[in-house]
Every structure is written in structure tokens, then in C-alpha cells.
Amino acid sequence: MIPGRIPLIIDTDTAQDDCVALLLGLLDDRADLRAITMVAGNVGFDRQVLNANLTLSVADRLGEVPVYLGCRRPLVRDWVSAENVHGDGAGGLEMDTTGLEPSTDHAVDVLIAMAAASPGELTIVCIGPLTNIALATIKDPRFVGNVKALYIMGGSNNARGNITAAAEYNFYVDPDAAKTVFAAGFEIVVVPWAPLTLNDAVFSRDQLAELATINTPLAKFFTRIIDATLAFDESVGIAGSTHPDSLTAAVLLHPELIVAEGRYAVEIETASELTRGYSAMSWGVHGLTPNATVVEAVDAAAFAALITRLLSLETVPSRAISVGRITQHPVPA
Ligand code: RIB
Ligand code: CA
């Protein structure tokens, strides 16, 4: 426990912007990141674990924050990859992982135990499919009451999806888990894909060019890992790289970023294949009881400035990070 800081766990399908969310958890002076829990999502599970260790390394926090392995597939459905969007999720970066064998404790059990050990204190930033969170809820009904809040990246607020017209990826991949979590009674804050992310968390090529001039290992890492997703985003008409995961961590740590939010009744579609994972967000005129706060707008410039400050931090990577045979960062003495 670090007095004055926000104790959190990040549950992630580590690829691209998930890495940026992890950097906020690791390096923001308001964050007390207790653990990283891995869930099946964006890219191959073992690659996600490497991406998390690469991120810990570039932040020079390798070995300081534990990584726990969770569910390797959704509750009911088959895994759906987003490798077409993210490539391997870290721009082909590699690292020696000798000695980094993860704990054998399952992430779901760790989530339950850590929440029980600090009832009402831990916030979980959920930036992947909600499989681990749903399973913890099913396994131990006390989990809901022990968790202070869930900050969930997912869904869209009466707006377009991204993996289908109706659904955003995290809720599409495991709609049954999302349905379970939103019905369980958690304190929930939602950072949706649309309109919020598309309005306030897209970095243009000009902004990215500016970030690329920052001469730090963090900025070089960022520039490398966002490449694949930038190409995909532009191919579907988005004018830059999208940052929903880092925005989710940012609004927890810096709530002053939030310009507008509202109370909504959020329910997830699981029956229809056409609209699987659709997040019905009722804004209070349909007689439904609200179960979540949905962020509607943030200060985009202040969010971009926060990420710029983050990437400007000087770190000495714990281990050399390489692309193929080219070592990007010297091995620290
Ligand atoms: O739909 C956006 C979500 O899925 C984010 O968590 C991002 O990681 C993407 O893969
Ligand atoms: Ca994610």
C-alpha cells in the first residue's frame, strides 16, 4: 500500500494500447499497481504475457509487479483474435524472458484473494474481455462487495461497434462474461469505444510524429507498438491511433479529465448472433435501473498531454528489448 495512491489491478489482453494503460499503472504518481492479470483477447495468450513483460521491462519495473495468468478462452464461446488489428501487439519486439516464469496461481483466484484481503479498496481496470472478472464473480459471490469499483473499457454508447456494426471487441469476444458482470452489482465506470474513444482518444499522425521526437525508451517503445494498430485504424477510416485502454486507466487516476458522464442501465446481448456483444445503454427514460456510470466526454488535449508526460519519463529498461537482431536499448550495466 502506498499512502495517497490509488490501489489497482489491471486485467488485460495486452496488446498496443493495453501496454500504454500498463505504463500509466506502473509509472503514474497517483497509481499503486498491485498486479496484472491476463485474459484471452487481442492476440495469442503467451504473446500477451510477453507484451506485458516487455512493458514492465521498458518501465524498469520487471519483477516488481506480478503477472498472473487467467482464462485462455471466453466462458462459452471460442476465442476471437484481433491479430488482424494489432499484429502481435508489440510491433515484433522481443526480450529474453529467462527467469520470468509466471506464478502458477490462477488470475481468477488471485483477483478473489486480493479483493478479500483489502475489502472495498481495490479498483480493477478491465481493458480486455471480462472473462476473469465474470469467473471470479461466479466463483465467490463476496467478490462483488470486496471490489471497490470496475473501470471497464468496452461497448459503445448508442453508437457504432468496431468488430461488428453492433459490438465493440471486448464485449463481442465474451458477451456472456460482460452480461454477468453488468448484472452482478459492481460499482462500474464504463469507457466506451464510441462515441467517446473516437471523439477524444485518437492521436493523429501529427501528434504521433511529435511523440516520436521524444528521446526516451518509453517513447520509442510506444512508437513501435502502435504502428500495426495505426495502419488498421486508418484502413477503417479513423484518422489516427486509438487509445481506449490508456484512457480507461487515465480517468481512474485523473478523474479531472472527465468532462461529461451519465448514469445508464447497461445490458449486453448474448442471444442474437447478429448483435452479439451489443451494449444496450439506456439513459434513464426507459424505466430501467442504472447500473453504471458511462463517460461521455473527456478533455482530449489534457489526456494527450498526460500521455506525452508519461512517455517523456526517463527509464532504464530492465532488460534489452530487440527487434529481430537489432537491440533497441542497451543492456543496463
Ligand atoms: O475495442 C477496443 C478494445 O479491444 C481495447 O481493449 C483494445 O485492446 C482492443 O483490442
Ligand atoms: Ca485491451
Structural notes for this entry:
37% of the residues lie in helices and 20% in strands. By secondary structure, it is an alpha/beta fold. It has one domain: Ribonucleoside hydrolase-like (Inosine-uridine Nucleoside N-ribohydrolase, Chain A, Alpha-Beta Complex), CATH 3.90.245.10. Strands 3-2-1-5-6-7-12-10-11 form a nine-stranded mixed sheet, sandwiched between helices. Strands 4-13-14 form a three-stranded antiparallel sheet, covered by helices on one side. It has a two-stranded antiparallel ribbon with strand order 8-9. Helix 1 crosses helix 2 and helix 4 packs across helix 5. The two termini are 30 Å apart. Bound molecules: alpha-D-ribofuranose and calcium ion.
The pLDDT mean sits at: 94
- Gross CATH architecture: Alpha-Beta Complex
Bound compounds, each kind once, are:
alpha-D-ribofuranose, calcium ion
Topology as H/E string?
Answer: EHEHEHEHEHHEHHEHEHHHEHEEEHEE
Taken as a percent bin, the fraction of beta residues is: 15-25%
Total number of strands: 14
Q: How does the helix and strand content classify structurally?
A: alpha/beta
CATH class: Alpha Beta
The N- to C-terminal Cα distance equals 30 Å
* CATH level-four homologous superfamily name: Ribonucleoside hydrolase-like
Number of helical stretches of at least 4 residues: 14
What shape does the CA trace take? globular
Number of discrete domains: 1
CATH topology label = Inosine-uridine Nucleoside N-ribohydrolase, Chain A
